[in-house]
Amino acid sequence: MLWLPVAEPVSTVGPTVLTGGRVLAVAADHPLAERGTPRRWKTSATTVSSTSAPPPEYWVTAMVPTRTPLDRRIPRRPAARTLHEILSLVASGQCVHPLGEIAARYNHPPGIR
To answer: How many other CB atoms are there within 10 angstroms of residue 91's CB atom?
Structure first.
């Protein structure tokens, strides 16, 4: 099962199994943590985690925007290989990261909002 979009010719898109929105994981002491629902990437400069083995660029752009609506670049670093690594980086304040609602529902590590 994959998140859409999927454009690889070897993959077949079948029926929808699950739908859901996205949330932004931030450290508990991050300025965005107190704002509730931040406007999509419109806030001050933030950094998101990159992946050590990057997925296709079209997928990254759909899931984790590369630019803000005001056309500012969203920096990518540090690299993470797993969801747990991403959550550790977020909790330590090294980055923020968008997640699917379902990931937020089932992962409640301390220090993350």
So the answer is: 17
